[in-house]
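Subject: for your reference before the review

Hello V.,

The reviewers asked for a structural picture of the protein, and I figured it would be easier to keep everything in one thread rather than splitting it across files. Below is the amino acid sequence we used in the manuscript, unchanged from the supplementary table.
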Amino acid sequence: MADPVAPRTELTLRGVLLGVLITLVFTAAQVYLGLKVGLTFATSIPAAVISMALLRAFKTATIQENNIVQTIASAAGTLSSVIFVLPGLLMIGWWAHVPFLPTFGACAVGGILGVMYTIPLRRALVTNSNLPYPEGVAAAEVLKVGTGSREGAAEGKAGLVAVALGTLASAAFGALAAAKIFAAEVAGYFKAGAGATGLGASSSLALMGAGHLMGITVGIAMFAGLAIAWGVLVPIMTTLHQIPGADAATHALTVWKTEVRFMGAGVIGAAAIWTLGKLAAPIWSGLVSSLDAGKARKAGGVIPRIEQDIPITIVGLISLLLLAPAGWFLAHFLVGGPIAHLTVPLVAIGIGYVLIAGLLAAAVCGYMAGLIGSSNSPVSGIAILTVLGASLMVGAVGRGVIGPDVTKALVAFALYVTTVVLAVAVVANDNLQDLKTGQLVDATPWKQQVGLIIGVISGAVVIPFVLELLNLSNGFAGAPNLNAIANDPLAAPQATLISTLAKGVLGGDLNWSLLGVGALIGLALVAVDETLRKTSAGRYSLPALGVGLAIYLPSTVTAPVVVGAVVGWIYDKLVDKDRTGEAAKRLGVLVASGFIVGESLFNVALAGLIVGTGKGEPLALPFAPSEHVGMILSLIAAAVVVFGLYNWARGAARKTAEA
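And here is what came back from the structure prediction:
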């Protein structure tokens, strides 16, 4: 093994440029996917594979340089999760367009703070910890295999082909849906006694790919959520609340949207609070260990390269200096509005909340990423708790202030503060995962941390442009200033929930009873999950957050995710029998990643075409088949593509072993 203390090629200009370019692509894909379905995906592994394939042309390229590339790309991709809140400012009518500066500011300030806050936790939660870090370990394995042997080089090339094939297939699938040859959705609703129910599913390879990456445990949890929502809650609530003259689809979807969805939010909230409660003791011990490690480091003299962080004094200085732009962005947000006279107390509360809530969120998310992986970390729950806290504090300052649009302004400010805290949380969620990868490939921590900052700034530049492009082309459901070209507004489900909670708290009309029912369901699910874990010695679980998400998200989103999780699990079981099973699994993950990237990027490009042509459906063909025929065609095509590419991945793994 190479000396982990000696210097080596790592933070290079070519690596940074490649990382930024991959960032531009993956951030656009993440923003679209998050706005459409309320989910994002981990970008570390596909970024690492692309990096290895391209940097192999340079003889001086190292595993550590490839690690820097995936670090930059994953930080930016993770930052895209701020779109779980930001569209809420359009939905409540505060913004008609997405302004660059406030959006960039919230992302950049929050993201860099997320990097700073987790640096003191690295030793406690990464170096001296037995946390599994599933995604960080997987990314390290990909890097080791791809750069360690001739067989690894062959697998690296096959991995790039896997991403490309998945991307092309998914983009083509999206193009046929845009042309109206494939149906965008497969659905069926029916009367159930006096009530109604049914199920819908998007014909989306991207969602199937997301299901594969999430895994069978989350897939089963989401299936349970679908069963609870559409098999129990919707039939009961539609029976209790009739809509005269409505057909089965209208009845079921209206009741789900106005009532059942809030129960799902209650489940998510209860599960998140339980998770945070369980993590309190480990997080505290982690912080204590971090302080002890700092004292030992000071007493020890020379620090090996693989233990060198950005110095804690610089970390503290950057964190304090960021308070100035944070305060400016918060104050600028209020300029000219109905509560501008409350700027001083609101900005003071906002900065304090970002500092304290952000620090807590960083510690919690960092630990959860190590425990269950950044993709499965309940960031939704953190966002819910953050917006409730921000709304209560902002409401306390604004109590007694009356006038037109005062409540809207208070809600908008609460959402903006929540955006900054969420940026802290999601970057921290990714940061420690990347540092774990770095530890396993003998990287230099401070260079990775610089890479993370570069990734954050790159993502913060891209996000406002992609958001505004989608706002112009499609717009967001429920936005009063909706003036989009296409008649197909994006649901932005997470932003809808967060903005609804803020409006409910500050407007005093939040339906706490529905949230309460959901919280009781959530506690029951937590009990089931804990029982399963104990009786099976940790082999089986039913994550309550996954169940809650499936109750809250539309079935059109969750159903294909469940299918993708099951198909991915079957594929993994089949290739387990092969000598090259592990390589086949890695290629399967890359095909699934390509599914997500292809469809998402195609739809971002389609948004550009919509804006450029001024036509809502620029690719629609006049001779498109009927919707029923389109459904059949899309189902057959999806089955053929998924089977064909997974079979290719299995065969390619065998060929790499023979190379």
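For the response letter, the relevant points are probably these. The chain has a mean pLDDT of 84. The longest strand covers residues 185-192.

Happy to draft the paragraph if you're swamped.

O.
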